[in-house]
Structures are given as structure tokens and as C-alpha cells.
Amino acid sequence: MRMIIKPSLPWSSYAFRGALYIFMWWILTDGVAASWWIGIPAIVLALMTSVYLLPPVAPAWSRWISFIPFFISRSLSGGIDVARRAFHPRLPLTPDIIEYRLRLPEGLAQVFLINIINLLPGTLCAAVKQNVIQIHVLDSGQGFMSELILVEEVVSGLFGIQLHTQIPGEPHAAI
Asked: Total domain count for the chain?
């Protein structure tokens, strides 16, 4: 997983995560002092595990803030589209499974992208295999590829990740 990591970020990430785990332990044990003899090793283990499973990244806060309206608009659009189709059954439904080759590397950003795709109008990720996601769509007549490309580019910017380039001779999105 290639991410932009600032040299000072890991220590601040450790401190934040450590403080969060200490607070959680304190809440779970009602602040009982005798619990700390097991709490400290548990917190250290949780901290090491979390850093191993989810390495610290440098968040681009301005991009995350600008992502909020993007996320809300796509969520509302998806909800309205599905509700409209449910209440007006004569609307065209041509369900299909489309495939999209991901350019994001495996990891948190890819999982985040898949969850965002589920909020797009009439889409639901059905499977992920070797950087290819199968997406169930309600109306195959709608142009989903440009929306998928846009969302993937937005997510790559949020995580500060370079998108993989496509293999020469291979189509950009569909396989």
C-alpha cells in the first residue's frame, strides 16, 4: 500500500490512538485503578495491532472537508433514485452485473471506495476479485463508468494515493 506519510505523523497517530485506547479502557472499567495492570499491556497490544493493520496516513483535511458535500449529494441521489423506482414500478429496470477494474491499491482506500460505490444511484458492489469489482446495477442503460472513475479519483485524492496505470491494451474500466 503506497501512501504519503509525513515523518512527524506516526508519533501523533500513536499518541492519538493510545489516548483513544486509554480512554476506552477507562470507560470500560469505570476507572478502577486495579484494572490497569492488565489494561496497559492490552492497550499496547491494541496500539501495535492497529498500527500494523492500519498504518498511519497523512490526511488531506481540506479534501476530506470538500468530500462531505460530494458524499451527501451522491447519497441523496442514490436514495431518491431507488425510492422513485420503488414507488413507480413502470420505470425501466434492466439489472445487470458490470465489472470495473480498480486502479487503487488494496487497502483502506479500496474498501472506502467500495462502500461509497454502494451509495451511488442504483449500484451495489457484489464481489471483489483481484482488483476487479462486480457491481450490480438497477439500470444498465445508465452510464456508470464515468461516475465510477470520478469516485475512484476523489478517493485517491482523499488518501493521497497514486492510481495505478492501466496495463497497455487493456480497457480503462470494463473488462
From this structure: 2
